[in-house]
Specification:
Order of helices and strands: HEEHHEHEHHHHHEE
Structural class: mainly alpha
Mean pLDDT: 76
Largest sheet: 2 strands, antiparallel
Strand content: 5-15%
Length: 225
């Protein structure tokens, strides 16, 4: 009987790429995104007056400093950690080191779980969509038109959008998992070479470098006295 893990196992992704190639591209893409975020955060630390987003009392009724120095430092550390994790996954897929792919896979599972919790919260508390729209600045485009829409339609649209994101993230998780299985399978599989003699069969592992075995010397001839 075929297990569910083997049934969904495939060495190709996106209908054309190998799972190793897909994991490398995905790791590079995540590194580029986090590198851009890191540059923005470092620029905000160097020039906080220009990049700091300050909401006035006319928008929310209170003065809230969203991006202070402590939050920027925390976000910078998270971006550096993400660049490290994505670089490990890219290197592990390229050099076929399965253990280096595990941190990136765990991050994907954690991110998927967070998005699932967001979808559950929208279902349990549908009024949170309207509350979130009310907290948006007054200059947000089409804010009044969106708020005038029926609440059930808004919840359905948000759930549909989150569902599409979760489906895409689940597919990427499957690609990275298949890459891990492929790399770990290549590292642990041993090909046995059968050496058959007249009376026994010996199992020997395959070595990268063949070792030349000197031929046995024939026994000395029998000399008659």
């Amino acid at each position: 009987m075929i297990s569910p893990w083997d049934r969904w196992y495939s060495t190709s992704c996106c209908l054309c790429c190998h799972v190793r190639t897909g994991t490398i591209i995905l790791g590079i893409w995540y590194m580029l995104i986090n590198a851009v975020v890191l540059l923005i955060l470092l620029s905000a630390l160097n020039d906080p007056v220009q990049y700091r987003y300050h909401l006035t009392s006319s928008e929310l009724g209170t003065d809230i400093d969203v991006m202070d120095d402590a939050n920027i430092c925390i976000a910078t550390a998270i971006s550096l950690l993400m660049i490290l994790i994505c670089g490990m996954a890219t290197y592990g897929a390229y050099k076929q080191h399965a253990a280096w792919i595990i941190p990136f896979f765990c991050y994907q599972v954690f991110d998927f779980a967070l998005n699932t919790l967001v979808a559950i919260s929208v279902v349990v508390y549908p009024n949170t969509v309207q509350d979130y729209l009310q907290q948006l600045p007054g200059t947000f485009p089409y804010k009044e038109d969106i708020m005038s829409t029926n609440n059930m339609c808004l919840v359905f649209a948000v759930l549909l959008f989150i569902g599409c994101i979760l489906s895409f993230k689940a597919y990427l998780i499957g690609c990275v998992w298949n890459c891990y299985r492929y790399v770990s399978g290549r590292g642990t599989t041993e090909v046995l070479v059968y050496v058959t003699t007249n009376d026994t069969t010996v199992l020997l592992p395959q070595y990268e470098e063949a070792v030349a075995i000197p031929p046995k010397e024939p026994p000395p001839q029998y000399m008659e006295a």
